[in-house]
Amino acid sequence: MFIMRLLNWSGKQIQRSMSHTRYTRLLLVSIIALFAVIMPQTAFAGQTVDPSTLNPPPPPEFNPECKAVGDGTICSLAFTELEGPDPIGLICGSGSNSFEIVGADTRTVQGRRYYDRNGDLTQRHFREVMVGTLTNPLTGASIAFIQADTIVHNLAVPGDFDTGTVSITGEWRASTPHGGTVLIDVGRWVGAQSDGTTFFENGQHPLLAYYGYGDTAAIQPLCDALR
């Protein structure tokens, strides 16, 4: 669930365009010599690439389709999964009247992974949409939420998943049964993949205020709606 992913990135650890090598014009003899060195090591553009040969390989459940491009490999991904119901770390109230909100959703993801000519991952770029519910486990009261965001992870060290920066841009909105907005979290966050250090943040982020800084008042509208 996005809320938990935001907690993970903000508390412990999500260039659209890759640079393409530009070769200067060479004499015909030089071009032939260059191709003689490169072609035995590089897949032809458009050729299917076995995902298991990449580092790290995209998970099979992501339904990866990988093809060679001029400077490496691009894998297209698409999948839908059910998440929860699980407690999501949002605590309402105190004492005997307190409860932890339970969340469940359907998550749909489309994206790409970019690998260099050595087969090492350089970027993850994906769009995800989550539609679900938040529930008070004591009373059964629930409200709906929808999340839509774009996540870009540029690796500082190709193939090393825990390096580089993550950018999350999108909107999370919880609504009443009649469509009224209960709480909204919207904007952009950029931070370190390794430990969640924040480099840049803008917008309205009550969830980050709660998870990252312990601001219980930030989620009070959710708690009130679930009483």
Derived structural class: alpha+beta
Largest sheet composition: 8 strands, antiparallel
Backbone CA Rg = 22 Å
* Tally of DSSP β-strands: 8
Our count of helices gives 4
Gross morphology is: elongated
**How large a portion of the residues is in β-strands, by DSSP E?**
35-45%
Count of distinct structural domains: 1
Widest sheet: strand order?
Answer: 1-2-3-4-5-6-7-8
Helix-strand topology string? HHEEEEEEEEHH
Low-confidence stretches: 6-42
Indicate the percent of residues in helices: 10-25%
Distance between the termini: 22 Å
Overall average residue pLDDT: 84
Could you describe the 3D structure shown?
The chain is of the alpha+beta class. 15% of the residues lie in helices and 45% in strands. It is built from four helices and eight strands. It has an eight-stranded antiparallel sheet with strand order 1-2-3-4-5-6-7-8. β3 and β4 form a beta hairpin. The longest helix is centred in the N-terminal third of the chain and has 11 residues. It is elongated, with a radius of gyration of 22 Å. It starts with a helix and ends with a helix. About 16% of the residues have low confidence.
